[in-house]
């Protein structure tokens, strides 16, 4: 299980970093609206991690699948937040200021607030997507014909 969520967590983080750097190359990295696509990246990675874990097991337990989803997204979130911290504190120190000015916020903790926002958004996205995907991937036992309500 460690192999699955660590591998997919690192890959999610790599794709998130590549997407951010692509936005930087185009000049759109200052617009937080483009971070909506981060949810698609998280979703694809978590879904693939859950599918990989489920396919390797004869009996798929909800708790273990939930753990795989949370940890793969959590690892990706931590790696991406560390990358953003290095980027905002060392490479582009004006990014936080320009984003805070667009939001009309005058806080002295601009960079720290953005890093906290990246961290919280990553964990919340991970939690919501993991809960959603587990509903699709779990074996239903609520109805007599429960198997027709699950993805195969």
TrEMBL record:
Keywords: Membrane, Transmembrane, Transmembrane helix
Residue stretches spanning the membrane: 7-26, 32-50, 70-89, 109-134
InterPro entries cross-referenced by the UniProt entry: DUF4199
Superkingdom of source: Bacteria
Keyword Disulfide bond part of the UniProt annotation: no
Keyword set includes Nucleus: no
Protein name, per record: DUF4199 domain-containing protein
Organism: Aequorivita sublithincola (strain DSM 14238 / LMG 21431 / ACAM 643 / 9-3)
């Amino acid at each position: 299980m460690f192999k699955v969520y660590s591998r997919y967590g690192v890959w999610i983080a790599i794709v998130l970093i590549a997407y951010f750097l692509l936005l930087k190359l185009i000049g759109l990295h200052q617009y937080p609206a483009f971070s909506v696509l981060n949810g698609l990246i998280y979703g694809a990675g978590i879904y693939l991690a859950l599918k990989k874990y489920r396919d390797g097991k004869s009996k798929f337990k909800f708790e273990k699948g939930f753990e795989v989803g949370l940890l793969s997204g959590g690892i990706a979130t931590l790696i991406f937040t560390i990358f953003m911290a290095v980027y905002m504190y060392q490479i582009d120190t004006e990014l936080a200021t320009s984003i805070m000015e667009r939001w009309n916020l005058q806080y002295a903790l601009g960079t720290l607030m953005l890093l906290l926002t990246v961290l919280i958004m990553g964990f919340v996205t991970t939690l919501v997507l993991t809960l959603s995907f587990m509903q699709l991937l779990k074996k239903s036992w609520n109805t007599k014909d429960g198997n027709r309500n699950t993805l195969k």
